Amino acid sequence: MRKFLMVLAATTMAIAPLAATSANAAPKYKVEKTIQYNHGKRVSVTKAAVVKPKHNQQHRWAKGQKFDRRYATNYRVINQPQNHRLYHAPRGYQWVQSGNDAILIGITSGLIGAVIGNALR
Hints:
Elements: H1 2-21, E1 29-38, E2 41-50, E3 76-77, E4 93-98, E5 101-106, E6 112-116
Antiparallel strand pairs: 1-2, 3-4, 4-5, 5-6
């Protein structure tokens, strides 16, 4: 029984760091090294800061890319494309809005079929 508990404890300690690093929710860090002088001595300082995503930045969509609505600005599904002078979406596709762009995406795959820039004002 003692051997079993020792093996269990060892595998838990070995697997725990791997499970923590594989999580997608882990924040990304920007490491910055600077050299400062303190009373004539050279001191190296390392700072780590969390990189924040830029939500106000426009994303440039292209045909064949995978569409992710988290990166779309002003995301909306266009239910009546004829009101925006767009053709009807083929079966399995839908028109969505990202900023002023109209994007035709596959419903199941999420792949972009067409991008019409500045179609929506």
